[in-house]
Amino acid sequence: MKLVTRYVVREHVGPLLFALSALTSLLMLQYVARQLANLAGKGLPWSAIGKFFVLSLPFTVAMTMPMAVLVATLYTFGRMAAEHEITAFKASGVRVRTLMLPVLTCAFLLSIAMVAFNDQVLPRANHELRILQNDIAKTKPTLALRDQAMNAITDQFFMRIARSDANTNKMYDVVIYDLTRGPERKTIYADSGVFSLTSNGQDLLLRLFDGYTQEFVRGDAKRLQRSFFIDQTVKVRGITRGFESTSKDDFRSDREMTVCEMHRRYAADALEFRRVRQEYIMYASRLVAPGTKTLTAPRDRPPEEGLSRFYCVTLPSLFLPKKAKAQAPVVSTIPQAPVVTPQGAPVIAQPGAPVIAQPGDTLKKDTLGAVVPTPPPAVTMSAPIPPALDTVTMYRGAMNAADAQLVASREGLDSLTVEIHKKFALSFACLVFVLFGPPIALRFPRGGVGVTIGVSIGVFGLYYVCLMGGEALADKGLVPPSIAMWIANAIFTVTGVVLLWRVESTTDTSRGGGIRDWWADRGARRALATQMKQEQAAKAAGKGSAAAVGA
């Protein structure tokens, strides 16, 4: 490795690690602040809280790694240009693209590593995090009753109290809404009461005094029944639940699957899509009016997704050893002697073997029912529907059902394709930002940390807006997923190449100042451009007049 290569790569390591740790910490703090209400006050063990933060890291790292790469390249090349190191390299015959080559190589290797990270680590972490969040949501450690508020004891049991005494557990002016029996809703009014927990600490006992129960009469929603009581006890089961870790959950969303798992699901869903499409065409063709030659059919889907097929099928076939083909076992055939039955000897039928009638055989009346099944009784309708109308209605309903199923299947296929492309596009953003960052840093060498932070925030915002907007459009089927997910990378790549060409064409890369200087000199640049245009026009006019005099 050349000395220049080692120097450029070493200068990027420190800023990259610092930017990655700082950005990851900021996003983690933001995520923790949003999830604090779901974690606090539930008596969770420290192991569950630690697991929650560890499982949240992979998604954060997947988002912050491209950001850290951009910050590192902006800072490093900006510092080298400000200290005239780039000028010294160019004076020695080392061009800017030569300095960028080792950084691009490292960025490409980092992108490959991020592909493996986003494909193997991130889906498993998302799956475990979803299971843990569901377990935390089910945890109800204590019962807290609030005065003058609606207390949700369970999902279908609500209680409102005017005031309560925390020392004696007494309640006053109690109203209970019991929805546990579905449409048979019950409301309980009590002057006072006492609440307590059972010995296991999971059930609630409500002892109510001087009140009445109001409910609808079963079978008659227009009648209301009211019964009075002096002392009544109501038991509510399962109001508290400790933290219990779920051992297994087989359901996986698209963000919880690897690329190869999504590839297999895409192939299966595409087959189902084509089957439903054929059903739709069949029903629609039967509803087409006579004489109509054209039929608009839903667009077919490819059987497999190209990028995932290359990743899951082509690459393993090139780098992994081929599996030996399984050989079918050799089955030896032994000639069997024919079975000879003496004439008149009874033949024992095998269970489940079909009865074959021979010529001349007759069937008895009692065996006829075993051979020919009895037809089902005819269904009589009081108001029969005309056959033609019934058939048209049936075909139209089947076609509408197939159309709805096609829409849902198409959305599922688009969602899988979007997630596959997003894993690769987000990984190769590291390479794109390395190509985009140095020209910006060399154009404003004396911008310092301010330019680094400002440009990074602007680029991050624009990139992720394009990425999230493209994902939303692709999920709705408005834009092809491959274009929606890669358009941001394409825009920044082209912009980086153009800026790099302009930087290479300049004679001195340290002549520029900060963004403020560039903005202040815009008037001088416009005046210079106008003067150059006027000089060119004057030269053209002089050449024209000289040609006229010579003629």
From TrEMBL:
<dbReference type="GO" id="GO:0015920">
    <property type="term" value="P:lipopolysaccharide transport"/>
</dbReference>
<feature type="transmembrane region" description="Helical">
    <location>
        <begin position="52"/>
        <end position="77"/>
    </location>
</feature>
<protein>
    <submittedName>
        <fullName>YjgP/YjgQ family permease</fullName>
    </submittedName>
</protein>
<feature type="transmembrane region" description="Helical">
    <location>
        <begin position="424"/>
        <end position="442"/>
    </location>
</feature>
<dbReference type="GO" id="GO:0043190">
    <property type="term" value="C:ATP-binding cassette (ABC) transporter complex"/>
</dbReference>
<dbReference type="InterPro" id="IPR005495">
    <property type="entry name" value="LptG/LptF_permease"/>
</dbReference>
<dbReference type="Pfam" id="PF03739">
    <property type="entry name" value="LptF_LptG"/>
</dbReference>
<feature type="transmembrane region" description="Helical">
    <location>
        <begin position="449"/>
        <end position="470"/>
    </location>
</feature>
<keyword id="KW-0812">Transmembrane</keyword>
<keyword id="KW-1133">Transmembrane helix</keyword>
<keyword id="KW-0472">Membrane</keyword>
<feature type="transmembrane region" description="Helical">
    <location>
        <begin position="482"/>
        <end position="501"/>
    </location>
</feature>
<feature type="transmembrane region" description="Helical">
    <location>
        <begin position="98"/>
        <end position="117"/>
    </location>
</feature>
<feature type="transmembrane region" description="Helical">
    <location>
        <begin position="12"/>
        <end position="32"/>
    </location>
</feature>
<keyword id="KW-1003">Cell membrane</keyword>
